[in-house]
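[#protein-structures] MJ: dropping DDE domain-containing protein here for a structure pass
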Amino acid sequence: MAERGLSLAHTTILRWVKRYTPEFVKRWNRLATTAGRSWRIDETYVKIRGKWAYLYRAVDRAGKTIDFRLSVRRDVAAAKAFFAKAIRTQGRAPETITLDGYAASHRAVREMKAGGLLSGRTKLRSSKYLNNLIEQDHRHIKSRVNVMLGFKRFRNAAITLSGIELMHRIRKDQFDLTRVHLKDTTSPSVWMAVLSAR
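AK: finished. structure tokens for DDE domain-containing protein:
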């Protein structure tokens, strides 16, 4: 903005993020491709008004983002809510779930299997080595969050993180842009075409 001679307050940018991010996410999600069925799941931490909140995230074995969910708590209910959201987003349950050693996440998977929300054939693995993929993926999100002035409200944090996650998915080429009928998907005009697609 400074290059264009515009002086903007941080609150103006925040208002833009709050207003436009949900619409961008909705429109881009129409073009999303399905991720793989071997999921690596982990949580990372985000500070909101001086208190830790928990960002549940999942990627497949190729590093494609499956889903994310910001939660005030890190417990069985939060893990189950994340799993349910991820399954809804992907339209199918995973064949394999790889977790770290946190007991609440393992219990959530067991309870979802018992309740029929996950197939009894879903394999559950606990491996710090296999979860290096998701740990590395957290870095891209945290690097964007760390340079910000901090979050004051949970809702603003959730919206901002959804925009950061969307940009990360775009970089990872997780969208089928052939469905927008563009000749040159590498052109910057692809952004405008995708955002204006109905």
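MJ: nice. The beta strands are 38-48, 51-60, 65-71, 96-99, 123-126.
AK: one more thing. The mean pLDDT is 89.
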